[in-house]
Design a protein that fits this description.
heterodimer; A: 258 residues; alpha/beta; B: alpha/beta; six-stranded mixed beta sheet; four-stranded parallel beta sheet; 13 strands
Chain lengths: 258, 391
């Protein structure tokens, strides 16, 4: 069992997202640790990209802020390396394919392993296009997280069967960002997934309130909170650590008391 | 696993949310492209409504002035809505209709694709929303009003460079939020499979007609076909039926902006590197960190950091050649064609005309150059006046 699957073993998992370099590199390290110490079970580190087609405004703006400071992949590998010295929390990159491709797939995965990264989530790499990276991911033991969407329908069994680590179930149509209501029948999709695999399923997109998280984990194995975390960082900038710690601990309480 | 690539280029690098939508599109397109009734309806729209076939005009004055190869102009500017964009749009919106969709969305740069989409949506009674970068809205305000007049809603895109690439990203985001009733009418031979194939097929009527028309007039093939390239739809259309005629040189003119040695350029083949963006693997202008680079051209329609995947393949295999043409050069050709032939070309098409002007004097008088005049230049007149310091 690797670091990723372990987090789902005895409990519902809390996964949080932040964008690397927003507001700066050292704060990103501090915020990861603040969330890790206060209930987050896995952290998604977003690699800023100039044109993130799957992101809503909140994360788009965070990426603009990070890129305005010229953050690059080496800086981000450095963040992982430093966090890894202090924490065993599983870390995954959320990245678009081009920064990886440009860096070189083999070099990228090799560095991921060296710094202690556990997995990657690539929103613009559907199952059909995974072939070109799979070999390197295996070679360096980096888990590729599979996304399943409300529109996946008859693709669900194929996607679920080959999934590893956990499945990222996209709660809603559209892009990342807060939603007051989630209308997708999560339960129905969950049961289709569970028909073909035992791999844990975490639900993301649009979740911000503890009540929503509580509701989601009634049928899912974990929740993923992204834009709500980024909003806190946007508001409190270099002084967000305490707010993030409190938010993570509230969310964790909500999902374990379930 | 991945479908129908052009060598290593193309693919379907899009979010999972859109995968079933492109698969559904592929199935529908593969069915209807061989459907007799669909093809008859499309032909009728192209001929009766859009005014096809477009003329292949012998530019006698320009030929004499340049003193070399004979220059023929493929007059896509004479189509309804004033550009080649209508060829693809009528095909896609008819397909959307057959698929039971009721709403179309599209990106636009110069506004030509947006106007064409709004036009076809009005004709075929579809709800229509266009996404256009704030920068382009300012550059092409008349086209914005034109789209609104045709009943479309125009959304200003405020992210990134606020130009065509951001409009494409925003249209993809919009599509992923509303798929069931919505068809994304992609304007160029780019994006995820099957779009590069669909757009190329609908635009290939350009080269089909050139071949037939030139054979009637000259009983031979052209020596050179030249077209401008942004995403590359009019060029792939003008090239396609000549790809197997190895003796025909195919030349794409990309926008060099203020020069390929400056940062203000959009010359993707000359300056770009292989990358993955907007659903496809192809050449893209990128920074040293693999970020998509801001690009620049006087022409909003060529102001795009990528190029369609089939062009990337034609470049690698050396079947086509891609030449950068600067703003200044394009403006010179814009004025030349206006003065010598009384034809005001789109500033995009003027990029292609410029290279024809360079090439013709070096060629013999029995050789033929066909230049695709992809659009008319009315939309650019005010901007050129400003560029020249006239107003």
């Amino acid at each position: 069992m690797n670091r990723i699957t372990k987090i789902f073993k005895n409990n519902k998992a809390l996964i949080t997202y932040l964008t690397a370099g927003d507001p700066d590199i050292s704060k990103t390290e501090e915020y990861i640790l603040a969330m890790a110490l206060n209930g987050a079970d896995l952290i998604e580190i977003g690699i800023p990209f100039s044109d993130p087609v799957a992101e809503g405004e909140t994360i788009q703006n965070a990426m603009v802020r990070a890129l305005s400071k010229n953050i690059n992949l080496e800086d981000i590998f450095g963040i992982v390396l430093n966090v890894r010295k202090k924490s065993d929390i599983p870390l995954v990159f959320m990245t678009y394919l081009n920064p990886m491709f440009f860096y070189g797939y083999e070099k990228f995965f090799k560095r991921c392993k060296e710094v202690g990264l556990d997995g990657i989530i690539v929103p613009d790499m559907p199952f059909e296009e995974q072939e070109e990276v799979k070999h390197f991911a295996r070679k360096y033991s980096i888990t590729i997280i599979t996304l399943i969407a409300p529109t996946s329908k008859k693709r669900i069994p194929i996607l679920a069967k080959q999934a590893e680590g956990f499945i990222y179930l996209v709660s809603s149509l559209g892009v990342t960002g807060l939603r007051s209501r989630i209308t997708t029948d999560i339960k129905a999709i969950m049961s289709e997934i569970k028909n073909v695999t035992d791999i844990p399923v975490a639900v993301g997109f649009g979740i911000s309130k503890t009540s929503q998280a509580k509701e989601i984990v009634k049928c899912a194995d974990g929740v993923i909170i992204g834009s709500a975390v980024v909003k806190i960082i946007e508001q409190y900038k270099v002084n967000a650590a305490v707010k993030l710690a409190n938010y993570a601990s509230e969310l964790k309480k909500a999902i374990i008391l379930n | 696993m991945s479908k129908e690539k052009f060598g290593i280029y193309g693919g379907q690098y899009i979010p999972e949310t859109l995968m079933n939508a492109v698969n559904e599109l592929e199935t529908a397109y593969n069915h209807f492209k061989n459907d007799k009734q669909f093809n008859n309806e499309l032909k009728c729209l192209l001929n009766e409504y859009a005014g096809r076939p477009s003329r292949l005009y012998f530019a006698k004055n320009a030929t004499e002035k340049l003193g070399g190869a004979k220059i023929y102009l493929k007059r896509e500017d004479l189509n309804h809505t004033g550009s080649h964009k209508i060829n693809n749009v009528l095909g896609q919106i008819l397909l959307a209709k057959k698929m039971g969709k009721t709403r179309v969305i599209a990106e636009t740069g110069a506004g030509q694709h947006g106007v064409a989409t709004a036009t076809a949506a009005a004709l075929l009674t579809m709800e229509c929303e266009i996404f256009m970068g704030r920068e382009d809205i300012e550059r092409q305000s008349l086209n914005v009003f034109r789209m609104q007049l045709l009943g479309a809603k125009v959304n200003s895109v405020e992210t990134g460079t606020k130009t065509l690439k951001d409009a494409v990203s925003q249209t993809m985001r919009e599509w992923s939020s509303r798929i069931d009733d919505t068809f994304y009418v992609l304007g160029s031979a780019m994006g995820p499979y099957p779009y590069p194939h669909i757009v190329r097929d609908f635009q290939s009527i350009i080269s089909k007609e050139i071949k037939e028309q030139l054979f009637k007039k000259e009983s031979k093939l052209p020596s050179v076909v030249i077209a401008c390239v942004g995403g590359g739809s009019n060029s792939i259309g003008a090239f396609y039926n000549f790809i197997n005629d190895k003796e025909v040189k195919l030349i794409g003119c990309e926008a060099a902006g203020k020069g390929v040695d400056t940062l203000e350029t959009a010359a993707t083949i000359t300056k770009g590197k292989v990358g993955i963006f907007h659903g496809m693997k192809s050449y893209f202008c990128q920074t040293e960190n693999g970020q998509i680079a801001p690009v620049y051209s006087i022409s909003a329609g060529l102001d795009y950091p990528g190029i369609g995947p089939e062009h990337a393949y034609l470049h690698d295999t050396k079947r086509a050649e891609y030449i950068p043409v600067t703003d200044d050069e394009a403006v010179a050709a814009f004025e030349f064609l206006s003065k010598t032939e009384g034809i005001i070309p789109a500033i995009e098409s003027a990029h292609a005309m410029y290279y024809a002007m360079q090439l013709a004097p070096k060629m013999s008088k029995d050789e033929i150059i066909v230049v695709c005049i992809s659009g008319r230049g009315d939309k650019d007149v005010a901007m050129i006046a400003e560029y020249k310091g006239v107003i």
